[in-house]
């Protein structure tokens, strides 16, 4: 089965790459090791980036073929977002609740894309609600030892690691078929970095959250290596630096100190549709969004959501 999955994803990547080249949109691809995962980054940015490139897309897997396929599919998804963002009736002007899945050699591409879109909408809505409303309850516990073991498999993390401890925040969501896990790493003498995900599978949600955490930690380490005088941070890296540096510690520690039994109540779904785009024949894109869903990635730096 693993061999078949790799072959399928290799074939998908070949078809999608051909389509991207045809329309002049083939990105630069780079592979890196993030703990137990291979990370493939797809980007038009040809220069070394300060921190995290917000225009890049990433695919993460224990298989290089799947990582590549995921990165290309997400790149096509991002193209679809740019085609439709701000259109009438689409809801907020971000990538919130978008998900894509290859049509190539897939019988359930619509179902899979829609499930991923809904999971992301739940993740972003619930994370924002938990952060902004101190009445929302949550469970907090130390991350399992396997998380630390996975981190230590990355040479970037092994050298001069600043991570003191990692714990998990799980907000209470009424009737949720799955869980939101927010991994939070405390950095020695500094602040906090995060990575989160929502999914029905415990293993998948922890893998995805860990991948995001490692990406943000490495992004912050890269920021530290750049002279402050020459930094020109976009809002994403500005928010990352605000919390990782320790400037936002009071906000984080204050929120973690407040407990309550209240649960997040998910509102009705406002948008739940297929998104047509230039490469719709190869990649299916879907969006789910709740009523009055706030932008998860707005430009305020004091929102502990990345």
- Give Rg in angstroms: 19 Å
Q: Into how many domains do the coordinates divide?
A: 2
The helix-strand sequence is: HEEEHEHEHHEEEHHHEE
As a percent range, the share of helical residues equals 25-40%
Gap from first CA to last CA: 34 Å
Helix/strand-derived category reads alpha+beta
- Which spans of ≥5 residues are poorly predicted at pLDDT below 50? none
> What is the fold named in CATH at topology level of the largest domain?
Double Stranded RNA Binding Domain
Residues in β-strands, percent: 15-25%
Largest sheet: 4 strands, antiparallel
Q: What is the averaged pLDDT score?
A: 89
CATH architectural grouping of the largest domain:
2-Layer Sandwich
Strands of the biggest beta sheet: in what spatial order?
A: 5-6-7-8
Shape assignment? globular
- Report the strand count: 10
Assign the CATH class of the largest domain: Alpha Beta
How many distinct helices? 8
Protein described:
With 306 residues, the protein is an alpha+beta fold. It has 2 domains: 2-118 and 272-290, Double Stranded RNA Binding Domain (2-Layer Sandwich), CATH 3.30.160.20; 130-256, Double Stranded RNA Binding Domain (2-Layer Sandwich). 39% of the residues lie in helices and 23% in strands. The protein has helices at residues 2-22, 64-84, 109-132, 145-151, 155-158, 202-224, 235-244, 249-256; strands at residues 28-34, 37-43, 57-61, 98-102, 138-142, 163-171, 179-187, 192-199, 269-275, 283-290. The strands form 3 sheets. A 4-stranded antiparallel β-sheet has the order 5-6-7-8. It has a 3-stranded antiparallel β-sheet with strand order 1-2-3. Helix 1 (2-22) packs parallel to helix 2 (64-84) and helix 6 (202-224) crosses helix 7 (235-244).
């Amino acid at each position: 089965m693993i061999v078949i999955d790799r072959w399928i994803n290799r074939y998908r990547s070949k078809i999608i790459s051909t389509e991207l080249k045809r329309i002049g949109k083939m990105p630069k691809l780079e592979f890196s090791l993030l703990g137990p995962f291979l990370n493939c980054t797809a980007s038009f940015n040809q220069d070394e980036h300060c921190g995290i490139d917000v225009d890049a897309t990433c695919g993460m897997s224990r298989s290089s073929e799947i990582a590549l396929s995921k990165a290309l599919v997400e790149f096509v998804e991002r193209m679809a977002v740019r085609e439709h963002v701000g259109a009438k009736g689409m809801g907020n002007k971000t990538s919130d609740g978008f998900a894509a899945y290859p049509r190539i050699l897939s019988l359930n591409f619509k179902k899979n894309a829609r499930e991923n879109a809904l999971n992301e909408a739940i993740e972003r809505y619930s994370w924002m609600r938990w952060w902004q409303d101190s009445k929302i309850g949550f469970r907090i516990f130390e991350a399992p030892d396997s998380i630390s073991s996975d981190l230590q498999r990355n040479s970037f993390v092994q050298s001069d690691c600043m991570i003191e401890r990692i714990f998990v925040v799980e907000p209470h969501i009424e009737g949720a078929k799955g869980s939101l896990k927010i991994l939070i790493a405390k950095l020695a003498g500094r602040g906090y970095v995060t990575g989160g995900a929502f999914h029905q599978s415990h293993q998948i949600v922890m893998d995805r959250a860990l991948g995001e955490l490692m990406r943000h930690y490495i992004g912050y380490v890269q920021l530290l290596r750049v002279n402050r005088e020459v930094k020109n941070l976009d809002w994403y890296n500005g928010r990352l630096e605000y919390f990782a540096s320790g400037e936002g510690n009071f906000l984080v520690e204050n929120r973690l100190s407040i407990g309550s039994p209240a649960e997040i109540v998910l509102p009705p779904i406002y948008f739940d549709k297929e998104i047509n785009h230039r490469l719709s024949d190869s990649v299916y894109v879907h969006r789910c969004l709740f009523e009055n869903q706030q932008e998860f990635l707005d430009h305020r730096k004091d929102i502990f959501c990345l």
